[in-house]
Amino acid sequence: MSEMKLIPYRTEQILQEAEEFPKGVKLVEAESLWERTSQGKGSVVAVIDTGCQMDHPDLENRILGGYNFTDDYEGDETNYDDNNGHGTHVAGTIAAIDNKKGVIGVAPQADLLILKVLSGEGSGQYDWIINAIEYAINWEGPQGERVRVISMSLGGPDDAKEMHEVVQKAVNQGISVVCAAGNEGDGRENTYEYAYPGCYNEVIQVGAIDNQRAIADFTNTNDEIDLVAPGVDVLSTYIGGKYARLSGTSMSTPHVAGGLALIIPLVESQFQRSMSEPEIFSQLIKRTLPLGYSKAAEGNGLLMLSLTDKLEELFSTYTTAIN
C-alpha cells in the first residue's frame, strides 16, 4: 500500500506579516455566528496534519494538546511542531485568534488538538493516520473536553479497510470528520477523481471554489462531494511566525471544520441537547448555497453560515407582508 500524502497544493506567497480579515472567512460568513457561539468557545477540532507551530502569535492559547505519530524528531511523541507549514496554515483557518493583527480564523475561540501524522516531507503511513483518529476519539481534555470535529487535508489513492472502520467509529461517536476532496481535478465536472479518506460516504468531503465563487480548476469532482468552500489564494498562519497564501482543497477543508465548531454549540444550545453526527451534518447542509454547478462538483453548494438567518428574516418579512 502506498503512503498517505499531503494533497498537492500551491504556495502562492509567503509573508513576514499580515493584517487582514481573510476573504475565505468572509465568504463563509463566519462572523454572523460569532456573537451567539462565543466564536466557537468550547468546541475542539482535531487537526490531523503535519503538526502546528505551537507558539505562532495568532494561535496563542488555542492548542489544548497534541501527539506526534511520525518518525520526525526521532519519534518524540510530545513534539508535534510543524516542520512543513501545511498544518499551521490549516490550524489558522480554523482558529486563528482575534488579536487585531495577523489573520483571524472561522472559529477564533475554538480549541485545537494537534495530531502530527505527516512528516516534514508531507508523507505518512496509513497506520499513523488510523492511530491518530483513534486517539482523537478517545482523547479527553483537562476540563473534560471531547473532540467534536476532525479536519484532514490529506489523501491517498488506496482504500484501507482499517481506516474506513475507524472513520465510521468516529462518526458513530458523534465526531464530524471533514476531508479534502483532492486536487487531481482536470477542470471537467463529468470526470470523477477519488482520494481516500475523502470519498468515504461517512466523511464530509469538501471541494474548492475561488474568491469569485467559481469552482477551482484543480478540485476533484465525484459522487461523494458534500459541499465547497474557499480554497484559492487562502491567507493563513505559517511556520516561522509568518503567513502564507496557499491554494488547494486542503485550504477549503478547515473552513468547514471551523464552521462546524460554530454550528455545533449554536444548535445544541437551541435544541438543548447533544446532537448526533447526522443531525449536525443536516444543520451544516442547511447552511449551503447552490452555485449552479453539477452535484459532482459542488455537492450541496457553498458553505454560508448566515443562510438560515437570512431565510428566517425573509420568511418573517413575507409573513408580515401577507398579514
Automatic annotation (TrEMBL):
Enzyme Commission code: 3.4.21.-
Keywords on record: Hydrolase, Protease, Serine protease
Residue span, Peptidase S8/S53 domain: 40-289
Superkingdom classification of source: Bacteria
Pfam families given in the database record: Peptidase_S8
GO biological process per UniProt: proteolysis
The keyword Protease is annotated on this UniProt entry: yes
Active site: D49 (charge relay system), H86 (charge relay system), S250 (charge relay system)
InterPro entries, alphabetized: Peptidase_S8/S53_dom, Peptidase_S8/S53_dom_sf, Peptidase_S8/S53_subtilisin, Peptidase_S8_Asp-AS, Peptidase_S8_His-AS, Peptidase_S8_Ser-AS, Peptidase_S8_subtilisin-rel, Subtilisin_Carlsberg-like
Keyword Protease found: yes
GO molecular function, one term: serine-type endopeptidase activity
UniProt similarity note: Belongs to the peptidase S8 family.
UniProt-listed PANTHER family: CELL WALL-ASSOCIATED PROTEASE (PTHR43399:SF4), SUBTILISIN-RELATED (PTHR43399)
Name the record gives this protein: Intracellular serine protease
Organism of this sequence: Halobacillus halophilus (strain ATCC 35676 / DSM 2266 / JCM 20832 / KCTC 3685 / LMG 17431 / NBRC 102448 / NCIMB 2269) (Sporosarcina halophila)
